[in-house]
Design a protein that fits this description.
heterodimer, A: 148 residues, alpha+beta, Sufe protein. Chain: A, 17% strand, globular, B: 411 residues, Aspartate Aminotransferase, domain 2, 2 domains, four-stranded antiparallel sheet
């Protein structure tokens, strides 16, 4: 079986210990809550989108190291990006998690995952994929509220 | 010395000889679902290979044999819970369906706007959600018995909560805390208030001597898969007078006396509540599981689990002190060998992932008891639960594996 080192990379544990962009944003920032009904994990995403750009993002909730570090890294990755860039990043991340597929057009677009690459190892532990993806689904929900 | 010969018992469970990565399986998730002994597997295979046929509806000998085996299982269940009559036992899909049957058949016939049903904070979703659904449909009121700090039912206000109530539905043993509730006392309190007593026996029945007559209960629900039987079958026992007066739950074949273009009449108990082809092979497996457990003795199983529970409480507390929080009572007289715990602030998912490296199987999550988790102030816990095939050495493996989690999450 794959070793725990594949799962619990140092960078993941660092984001878990010291989550970035924790907190809330007042309206008109949008707010979405995501639940993992199987395990009780919860992620809240506050999103401030102005002129098609993610001006600010805050993350709340509680859960395991994978769900919380994924949310923290996600918040860093999307801040300052355009809505279209964020959507491309979500797609790229979910394809890394093997739940979406990249077509040729997707693959030709350059999307940098950066620190998020550290979550690659989660794929070897299929039960934990839902932990890693929870915040991204919540982000998508907050994004669709912000750009109806 | 333990009350059971665990080494011999383990040999009866084929799966327990399985190794993963060269290490034995340490299965501590029996509160979730239990493993199956050879006797159950063989009985089910034999049924399918030798005497499988429809029950209750065909004249040939094979069908008569299958019917006898199926009804034999019902008799075994009757004996196991000391029910007065075999036809008071209804086979369902699982305990959840059994509780839904009570809520929707008895509940719809007997409850209207403003009527009160009393539950407790330690119920799992199967004994909460059907009542919420009935509340939305009928406008009934739900009241809740709270907990004491050590995870027992706080009965201080019970008479007030039960005042005017029509039903009191409660677990005999918490799937999260391990707490064993005073069932006989709770049934008496319900009856004194004019309410019926519905006992959720999912966690209790597999581990203890069950006697619905000594309890003076009105309904009892439990599952086969937690007591060494197959999944796919559960049991509702109900007092004959109550079952007789209730409307049917699911409609279809087998539950009717007659069907005309303008309506139907229902069959006698228990067929009235067993619409469609029942889980035939599963019933035979359940019967075999009960005979297997009876062969060992429920008193002996309970005594063994008290010893393991006592050892687990002492070992984990002595070894980890304040680094571990074990929810529920510390007195093994009022608890089973099911332990939910928090360990060094490590999230239960991460904990169970690390324990899995040592083949230690524990549940992590909310245990289908989210209201209780909110009372405990935890979104999730890890839970280790022991059964007749577990012993003290597995407590030690658990403790060693917990220690290794600190290597990764020791911050």
């Amino acid at each position: 079986m794959p070793g725990l080192d594949d799962l619990y990379r140092e960078i993941i544990l660092d984001h878990y210990r010291s989550p970035r962009n924790r907190g809330e944003l007042p309206p008109p920032a949008t707010h979405a809550v995501g639940h993992n009904p199987l395990c009780g994990d919860e992620i809240e995403v506050y999103l401030d989108v102005r002129d098609g750009v993610v001006h600010d993002i805050k993350v709340g909730g509680q859960g395991c190291s994978i769900s919380q570090s994924s949310a923290s890294m996600m918040s860093q990755a999307v801040k300052g990006k355009t809505v279209d860039e964020v959507r491309a990043l979500v797609h790229r991340f979910k394809s890394m998690m093997s739940i979406e597929e990249l077509d040729d057009a997707d693959a030709s677009v350059e999307v940098k995952l950066g620190d998020l690459e550290a979550l690659q190892g989660v794929v070897k532990f299929p039960v934990r994929i839902k932990c890693a993806v929870l915040s991204w689904n919540t982000l998508t929900e907050a994004l669709s509220q912000a750009t109806p | 010395m333990t009350a059971l010969d665990v080494a011999s018992i383990r040999k009866e469970f084929p799966i327990l000889s399985r190794e993963i990565d060269g290490q034995p399986l340490v299965y501590l998730d029996s509160a979730n679902t239990s493993q199956k002994p050879r006797a159950v597997i063989d009985a089910m295979v034999r049924c399918m290979e030798y005497s499988y046929a429809p029950i209750n509806r065909s004249a040939y000998r094979l069908a008569a044999e299958a019917t006898d085996a199926f009804e034999g299982a019902r008799s075994a269940v009757r004996r196991f819970v000391n029910a007065p009559k075999a036809h008071e036992l209804v086979f369902t899909k699982n305990a959840t369906e059994a509780l839904n049957l009570v809520a929707f058949s008895w509940g719809r016939a007997n409850l209207g706007r403003g009527d009160v049903v009393v539950l407790t904070h330690m119920e799992h979703h199967a004994n909460i959600v059907p009542w919420h659904m009935l509340a939305a449909e009928r406008g009934i009121e739900l009241r809740w018995v709270p907990l004491t700090p050590d995870g027992q039912l706080d009965l201080t206000d019970l008479p007030r909560l039960l005042d005017g109530a029509k039903a009191f539905s409660f677990t005999a043993m918490s799937n999260v805390l391990g707490t064993i509730t005073p069932v006989r006392e709770l049934c008496a309190a319900a009856h004194q208030a004019g309410a019926i007593a519905i006992v959720d026996g999912c966690q209790y029945v597999p581990h203890n001597v069950t006697d619905v007559q000594a309890w003076d209960a009105d309904f009892l629900a439990f599952s086969s898969h937690k007591l060494c039987g197959p999944s796919g079958i559960g049991v509702l026992w109900g007092r004959e007078s109550l079952l007789d007066a209730m409307p049917p739950f699911l409609g279809g074949g087998n539950m009717i006396a007659d069907v005309r273009l303008d309506g139907f009449t229902t069959a006698e108990l228990p067929a009235k509540f067993e619409a469609g082809t029942p889980p035939i092979v599963e019933a035979i497996g359940l019967g075999a599981a009960i005979e297997f457990l009876e062969g060992i003795g429920m008193t002996e199983i309970r005594r063994h689990e008290m010893q393991v529970a006592d050892y687990a409480l002492r070992t984990l507390t002595e070894r980890f002190g304040d680094d571990i929080t074990i929810h529920g009572p510390t007195n093994v007289e009022v608890r089973g060998a099911t332990f939910s715990f928090a360990f060094r602030g490590i999230h239960p998912h991460d904990l169970s992932q690390v324990l899995d490296q040592r083949n230690v199987c524990v549940r992590a999550g909310h245990h289908c008891a989210k209201p209780l988790m909110r009372v405990l102030g935890a979104s999730a816990t890890a839970r280790a639960s022991f059964y007749l095939y577990n012993d003290e050495s597995e407590v030690d493996v658990l403790a060693d594996a917990l220690d290794s989690a600190t290597d990764i999450f020791g911050f």
